[in-house]
Amino acid sequence: MNNKKWLWAAGSVLVFGLLTGCGTASNTNENRSGAKAEAPKKSEVTAKVSSTFETIEENNSIKVNYLVKNTSGETQNLSFTNGLKVDFILYDDQGKKLRQLSDEVVSTQALEEVTLGKDEEFSKEFIIEDVYNGKYILEVFLTAKEEEAKVSRHITVEKSLTKASGAYIGQIDPHTVELKVDGTETAYQLSEEAANQIASFKKDAQVTFVYKENDKGQKVIDKFLLEQ
Known about the structure:
By secondary structure, this protein is α+β, with helices and mostly antiparallel strands. It has helices at residues 2-34, 101-104, 192-197, and strands at 49-58, 61-70, 76-80, 86-92, 97-100, 112-116, 121-129, 134-142, 151-157, 162-173, 176-181, 184-190, 206-213, 219-224. Helices cover 19% and strands 46% of the residues. Strands 10-11-12-14-13 form a 5-stranded mixed β-barrel. Strands 5-4-8-9 form a 4-stranded antiparallel β-sheet.
């Protein structure tokens, strides 16, 4: 009798253990399947090219040297659909678009490819004319189908002409005029080009002009910017 009780007790423990084990396994699987899988992190995409530019002020213009380098570790092909391989946009310091090269020039329609080997560079030098003293944002980029290689940064022009606007008061002598700028009446000397332009001006007419100061501290108008 005692043997039967012992066997029954042992069997109960065994069955209970199996049931408990099954339940634990079931819960574990449920937790694993129900848990949200963590999204794999996106690997960083290595840039195929790097780009930069330098600017130099000269003759009331900006010379730009734009450089693109193949940093991908393998050969890169650039396809251009016209002769304008590099374009630029010039903004004022508030982000307002002032001009764009592709709006000002007519380029030839011709397919051309440029191949850059490993660490090979492509450079382009161009000049932006009539950029006056002030702060700007310059954006330069390729027109290639595969890569823009766009680079943008703030630039300051301080060795050029200064742009201003005011009211035309009148002519003092053949080479001097009086203008009211920012509420102050000021005498300006005239270049030969500016002197020829004032013939059509009327008193109190609003005019825009560019000027510089000479060695004597005189403000000399280089030219009036007439609306086209």
